[in-house]
Amino acid sequence: MSRRLIIVIVAVPEIRKGRRMRFVSLCIGLLFAAPAFASSSTWHETEGGRVRLVTVGEPDANGQLNGVLDIQLDPGWKTYWREPGDAGVPPTLELNGGTAQILYPAPEWHHDGTYDWAGYASSVLLPVVLTVPPEHSGALQATAFLGLCKTICIPLKADLALDPESDPDNPSDSLTLTGAQALLPEPASAAFGVTNIQVNGEQATFSITGYSGADAELFLAGSDGFAFSRPKPVVQNGKLSFSAKVTSYLKAKPKSATIFYTLKTPTRAASGTLPF
After folding, report:
1. How far apart are CA 243 and CA 230, in angstroms?
2. pTM of the full predicted structure?
3. CA 188 to CA 263: how far, in whole Å?
4. Could you tell me the pLDDT band of residue 28, with boundaries at 50, 70 and 90?
5. Is the pLDDT of residue 90 over 60?
6. Domain 44-184, what architecture?
7. CB-based contacts of 4, cutoff 8 Å, min separation 6
8. If both were cysteines, with which of 30, 106, 196, 233 could 207 make a disulfide (CB 3.0 to 4.6 Å apart)?
C-alpha cells in the first residue's frame, strides 16, 4: 500500500535532547503510517476527461455500498449510455471480489454522421451500487471501462482504489452522491412509461402512457444480443407510441430476454424494464 506524507506543526514545551529524539521518531512513524486511500479514489486522467470512484458510508449487512462513478468531460467530448449503438463503448465497472451495478440518468441522442447513439455531451455522475463480501474490510480495487469521443473515440480503462472505511461521512462525497441520485429517472409506472410492446418481424412498437407529445424520446437497451434502432415517435388519435427496428446478433430469439428503457419528455423521465 502506498503511503502519504502529512506535515504537522505541533507546539510543545521544551523537551530534553534524548526525549526529543524519541518524540520526533514517534511522530515520523505515525505520519508515514497514514494510508493513502480515501473514500473516493484519485482521478484517472486521460485525453478528453477524467474519472474517479466515490463511495459514501460503509457496506450494510448485505455488503451493499452506494457510490458514484464520476466522469468529467473536457469541452466537446462525449461518453456513452448503457446501450451505445453499433460502434460505442458502454460504461462498465468491475469490483475485485464483488459486483458493481451502474445506474443511469436520462441520456441524449447523438448522430456522428453514420450512427445514432445515446450518451452524454457533458460531465455525468453515474450512481453505482457495490456489493462486497461480508468479511471484507479495508481498501477496494475496481476497474472502470468506458469510451470518450470527440472526432474520434478513445477507450478508457481506469484502475481505481479507495477505502470506504477511511472517511465514510465525508460531506463532499455525500453531496456528490445526493446530486447523482437526484438526476436518476423515476421508476416507470402504469401512469407513466411503456405499457406494451408488439413485435412484427423486425419491427417493434412500444405503447406509451402518461404523455402524448411527439417531442418525447425513448432509449432502449436489449439483453441477450438484441438491440434496437433509434425509436421514432408516432402520435395517432392523441396516443403516443414508438417504432424501432429490431436487430438480433443471435441465430434465434432466446426464450426470455429483458429490455431496459428510459422514456424522456421535456419535464420528466422514467426508467423500467420490459419482457421480450
Report:
1. 8
2. 0.83
3. 8
4. very low
5. yes
6. Sandwich (2.60)
7. 34, 35, 36
8. 196
